[in-house]
Amino acid sequence: MQAAGSAMLKVALVAAIAVGLGLFVAESSRGAAPAELTGADYAEIERLYGLYNQGADFRDAEMWLSAFAEDAVFRTGPGQEQRGMAELRAGREARNQGQTGDNGRRHLNSSFVITATEDGAEGRAYWVLNDVTGPEPRTVASGYYDDTFVKTADGWKIQTRTLHRDFVAE
């Protein structure tokens, strides 16, 4: 009987350790660091900046829209926000006013800082907008983007973009 009691004690001890370990793992994963981004992730996220820029500069709405998630939010200023693909498309169509092709502008991005998050990634990059219709390019605006990115079935996409403009004295 003493052997049976000892065996039951061992089973109870193993069960208690297993439950404790399970609780520890569950608790640890709640505050776990986000997954690391791969080189391919960084490249794909940086490519989104190119799709956005060239889609805008060459009035290619489909290219521009391809950078965004279906439920994306794009903020261009206080109280100026487009939510979801339908609003993004309408905003782009209004901006292009039925025109296609080169608009004489060039968006340039630099100083990318992209960081993994629990839900995907976040990033910030500087932007400069040049007018290239004259004999020499002329900077017409600058600022930075605050972005969040989400990985979808179609790859990385912009989930939220907030456009910040640098102050321009008039």
Describe the 3D structure.
The structure is a single chain. The chain has 170 residues and is an alpha+beta fold. The chain has four helices and six strands; from the N terminus they run H-H-H-E-E-H-E-E-E-E. It has a six-stranded mixed sheet with strand order 2-1-6-5-4-3, with helices on one face. A hairpin with a 2-residue loop joins strand 1 and strand 2. The radius of gyration is 25 Å and the shape is globular.
List keywords for this structure.
single chain; 170 residues; alpha+beta; six-stranded mixed sheet; 6 strands; 39% helix; globular
Strand content: 35-45%
**Overall mean pLDDT score?**
86
* H/E element sequence: HHHEEHEEEE
For the sheet with most strands, the description reads:
6 strands, mixed
What class would the helix/strand composition place it in? alpha+beta
Q: What portion of residues is helical?
A: 25-40%
| Number of E strands | 6
Write the layout of secondary structure elements.
Layout: H1 2-30, H2 39-57, H3 61-65, E1 68-77, E2 80-83, H4 84-96, E3 105-117, E4 120-131, E5 138-152, E6 155-165
Parallel strand pairs: 1-6
Antiparallel strand pairs: 1-2, 3-4, 4-5, 5-6
Structure at a glance:
Helices cover 39% and strands 38% of the residues.
